[in-house]
Design goal:
The strands form seven sheets. This protein has an eight-stranded mixed beta sheet, sandwiched between helices. The N terminus is likely disordered. By secondary structure, the chain is an alpha/beta fold. The protein has 27 helices and 41 strands. β16 and β17 form a beta hairpin. It is flat.
């Protein structure tokens, strides 16, 4: 693309977006090469829309108009276009103006903005998406306000501005509505943006899971093969829509395969096709995508391999696949996918290679591995559970777990979300979506490739630099239930889908084996639960005895959950009776269904024939009323009621008892129950998440000015720069964080002079990199009361460790004694800003005893953060010591969180040590790094990832 020579083309403004109807489009800057596209676009706009844009009849663009609308400097004059299939469908333009409305340059910070959307594409949310992007561009170029004049009859455009959530002013003058929008993001504008994102991405997934027609491209003439297998599964699964087989090699005389119409190209199909399953060699996929795009297909499931998993050439082939599909407005599951399943009766879609179709259930399942997908489906089917939807996304070059979280968030047919992930392309967005979904239904994650330090070969995603333990902490903060194995994923999913959440950690244990009861008791203690003494019913217990004991345990107000342990009973003649599983299951279901409020029940069984199947065969509670799977919900539909019944929610009258999950080992049952207890506690706390406090003494504007000055004076370095001590102290002081001053001591005389200025007692410390914060190496001398002791300490340090030039000694006034801690924040390119806390010292470093939270941190999360390290008891009066001022420590955490959240240029902050005394605290050392802010973050305009 050619551009005006004085300004480089801003490629980072390019973005793929999902529109309101679930289709995709591309946003990009307009260039001088776009003249013909602009003219063609304008010719397809109605006279009414042209009138609304120019306030007068304007049938065609003059050459001068075309030149003006395609030549921009990308600073004071910017134009963006939305393209579908490479052609313009909408444009937006801003021109910087001064206070008289005349063309201007910086420092003028206002611009006129105007939109034009092709009539055929109005109502798709294009103008709203364009406003987000042009506003972000304007902010980047120093523009703080947009002014727009709109005719009163142009209600659609007025609504776009009104609903954006920006602070705005409106008046009527000269026959037009004049609107002025402040472009600084607000809580409302961010909520509007994320709400639109959720509805659009959910709709795009719904189009993939609820098609009215499916074409299998690559279905062979003979049985077997990938395409023919998918076609057979579609038919065997009872798909309710139209099905087509497509194979370019079919001879003319073949018009059917497996009883469905067979064609050589989608162009031969006279009706619309919603979904195409692509099962052809990778080299043929581009022509198939083009065929699908020209036919108006809405989405692709690409089973073909030979992409990023095969090396650099395959990675580029994968990028081109996504680019090509999105250019037609299509989304892609795959490549190298295993397929999708939707068990809802209105759809009954099995467009997958799964050898066994699961039954209908309340679990949504997403995997990035076909093999793991097979194992998970088999495990659920074997234990009597079904799924609402299943997706195995393979390389997930486009549609990812984030998209399905958007869909499942308000899907009335899904109660529990299970995900097997090998990489997380956008951890910050994932945790945000998981937190929102987790507030109403559990999200359970098993993550592979945890310790490899890289994503699997097929996953072309950014690799986060934070360790797995930190990722786990951030997932926990978002309410995600993280498990270690796929077996645990199924175990947890079965319990959460079948049983209500526990109100607390108190667990009753009853059964006919004292030994199995004791194993269960120990397992409860291991998981942090509070087991009650096991009730031994003896080996002669009959099903009625189990029923009575379970009913009594559930009625006990001191019990929150029950684990039933069962072994084959022993008759009066000593014979072992192992075939009474169905009778025992009936007794347990009757007891579990007779109490309200409900409590979770699990069963641990050993060699009782038919028990697990009989327990899983019980009906679930009646599904909620709402749209059928694949039907979606209206954009303004309120979120559904909590998907998993809370402890206080009784079962609806007239519904059958819930399934009772059964486990072959006590440890598995209790581990699943422990995770349900932790999740229930998180959900109760999430109802009151806390707040990010406002501090009157924070000078955000002054800090921003200081950062701009420092970065402006420095040579550009994308990796950042470390601030000097004085600049770091000044920046932190703007946020009410005081760092105790240090004075250099290049010699003993300078040390004595510094101590006299600071006042005794003082500390003498080395600041050499290899000794910094390493008191264990002897580089610190504390509580020096006078000059004599100071000079002696100086001689001792330099004699033992090296000369002053190497040690870089400093003198600092002594702080009140307390507990040494470390507060830090690091910005990870993928995860965002992470706030960390731990106690200082080699023990904490050795054990990795550091806690983490995503920024911004609320007051509740700050309190949890400092209490979540294993050494936290030292802060609260361990073994008779005085408790320290944790309130001051929580405030420091909140101030650091605000600092890095307000200023994306700050890439790291480290306060070490922070000495927390019984009253107050002292920050003895601080380092800060700055870098140019990233061009994109999770707070920016909506955009699909581009890897």
């Amino acid at each position: 693309m050619t551009t005006p020579s004085q300004h480089a083309y801003p490629a980072h403004w390019e973005a793929d977006v999902v529109l309101r109807d679930g289709g995709t489009a591309r946003v990009r800057p307009i260039t001088t090469d776009d003249a013909e596209r602009l003219v063609s676009f304008y010719e397809q706009v109605s006279d009414e829309s042209k009138y609304y844009r120019f306030f007068a009849p304007y049938p065609r663009l003059s050459d001068k108009d075309v030149y003006r609308f395609t030549h921009h400097d990308y600073v004071d004059r910017v134009g963006l276009a939305v393209t579908v299939g490479g052609e313009f469908v909408a444009t937006v333009r801003y021109d910087r103006i001064d206070d008289r409305g005349m063309p201007a340059s910086a420092p003028a910070d206002e611009a006129e903005v105007a939109f034009l959307v092709q009539d055929a594409h109005q109502g798709r949310g294009i103008a709203s998406a364009l406003l987000e992007h042009i506003a972000a561009v304007a902010r980047e170029r120093g523009i703080r306000r947009f002014a727009a004049e709109v005719l009163p009859a142009n209600n659609k455009m007025i609504k776009v501005f009104r609903d954006a959530g920006f602070t705005q002013r409106r008046n009527f003058e000269d026959g037009a509505v004049r609107l002025v929008l402040d472009l600084e993001p607000t809580a409302e504008s961010l909520a509007v943006q994320r709400g639109r994102e959720q509805r659009a991405e959910a709709r795009s997934v719904q189009r993939l899971l609820g098609p009215s027609s499916v074409a299998v491209v690559g279905a062979g003439r003979t049985a077997g093969g990938v395409g023919r297998t998918v076609l057979r599964n579609l038919l065997d699964g009872g798909f309710t829509g139209r099905t087509y087989a497509v194979n370019v090699a079919l001879p003319p005389e073949i018009t059917e395969i497996d009883g469905v119409p067979a064609v050589r190209s989608l162009a031969e199909i006279e009706e619309p096709v919603d979904l195409a399953v692509v099962a052809v060699p990778a080299g043929r996929v581009p022509e198939v995508v083009a065929d699908c795009g020209e036919h108006g297909v809405q989405g692709l499931v690409v089973l073909s391999a030979g992409y990023a998993e095969s090396g650099p050439a395959g990675r580029e082939r994968q990028r081109e696949l996504v680019r090509q599909a999105r250019s037609y407005g299509m989304r892609v599951i795959g490549p190298n996918a295993f397929g999708v399943i939707n068990t809802g009766p209105p759809v009954r879609l099995n467009a997958s290679l799964a050898p066994e179709t699961p039954g209908r259930g309340r679990i949504g399942l997403f995997t990035q591995s076909g093999a793991i997908g097979i194992a998970l489906l088999a495990g659920l089917v074997r234990r009597g559970a079904g799924v609402s939807t299943f997706i195995s996304a393979g390389n997930r070059a486009d549609v990812s777990g984030n998209d399905f979280l958007q869909y499942w968030h308000d899907d009335p047919d899904t109660d529990v979300v299970l995900l097997y992930l090998e990489s997380i392309g956008n951890p910050r967005k994932f945790t945000r979506l998981a937190r929102r979904t987790g507030a109403t239904k559990p999200v359970v994650v098993a993550k592979g490739a945890r310790h490899s330090g890289s994503a699997p070969p097929g996953h072309a995603v950014p690799v986060t630099g934070i360790p797995d333990a930190t990722v786990s902490a951030l997932l926990s903060q978002a309410g995600v239930i993280r498990v270690d194995t796929v077996t645990e994923l199924v175990d947890a999913g079965l319990l959460l889908a079948a049983q209500p959440l526990p109100a607390g950690p108190r667990v009753a244990i009853l059964g006919n084996s004292e030994s199995l009861g004791l194993l269960t008791y120990d397992a409860c203690l291991t998981e942090g639960l509070r087991p009650l003494p096991p009730v031994d019913l003896t080996t002669s217990a009959r099903p009625q005895d189990f029923r009575t004991a379970l009913a009594a345990a559930l009625a006990d107000p001191g019990c929150d959950a029950v684990v039933v342990t069962a072994i084959p009973s022993v008759g009066e003649d000593g014979a072992v009776e192992s075939d009474d599983g169905e009778v025992l299951a009936t007794a347990l279901r009757e007891a579990a269904g007779s109490t309200a409020p409900e409590k979770p029940v699990t069963v641990v069984h050993v060699e009782i024939g038919g028990l697990a199947n009989a327990l899983s065969a019980a009906s679930t509670t009646a599904p909620r009323q709402g749209p059928a799977p694949g039907a979606g919900t209206a954009p303004d539909t309120p979120p559904p009621a909590p998907a998993v019944a809370s402890p206080a929610q009784p079962r609806e009258p007239g519904t059958a008892p819930r399934r009772i999950p059964a486990y072959p080992a006590a440890e598995r049952a209790v581990r699943a129950l422990g995770r349900a207890v932790t999740y229930a506690q998180w959900r109760r706390q999430a109802a009151e998440p806390g707040k990010v406090p406002e501090y009157d003494d924070i000078d955000e504007t002054g800090a921003a000015g200081l950062i701009d000055r420092i970065l402006g004076d420095a040579h550009p370095d994308p990796h950042g720069m470390s601030l000097g001590d004085d600049d770091a102290r000044e920046l932190l002081a703007r946020y009410g964080i005081s760092v105790r001053p240090t004075l250099p001591a290049p010699g003993p005389d300078e040390a004595a002079e510094a101590a006299a200025r600071l006042g005794y007692p003082v500390a003498l410390k080395t600041t050499a990199p290899h000794l910094r914060h390493r008191a264990d190496l002897g580089g610190v001398r504390l509580d020096l009361p006078d000059e004599e002791r100071l000079r002696a300490a100086y001689r001792e340090l330099t004699g033992l460790l090296g000369g002053p030039a190497e040690l870089r000694p400093v003198v600092q006034a002594m702080a009140p004694r307390g507990v040494d801690t470390v507060v830090s924040a690091v910005i990870d390119p993928a995860a965002g800003a992470v706030l960390s806390f731990g106690l200082a010292g080699v023990v904490s470093e050795l054990l990795g005893d550091v806690a983490h939270r995503l920024v911004p941190v609320t007051d509740r999360e700050a309190a949890e953060l400092l209490r979540s390290v294993r050494t936290a008891p030292l802060l609260f009066g361990w073994r008779g010591s005085a408790p320290v001022d944790t309130a001051a420590l929580e405030e420091l955490l909140l101030r650091v969180s605000r600092l890095v959240d307000d200023h994306p240029e700050i890439v790291s902050v480290a306060l070490e040590p922070v000495v927390v005394a019984t009253q107050g605290l002292s920050v003895l050392g601080a380092s800060v790094r700055l870098a140019p802010p990233p061009s994109h973050d999770d707070l920016g305009p909506r955009r699909l990832p581009s890897y």
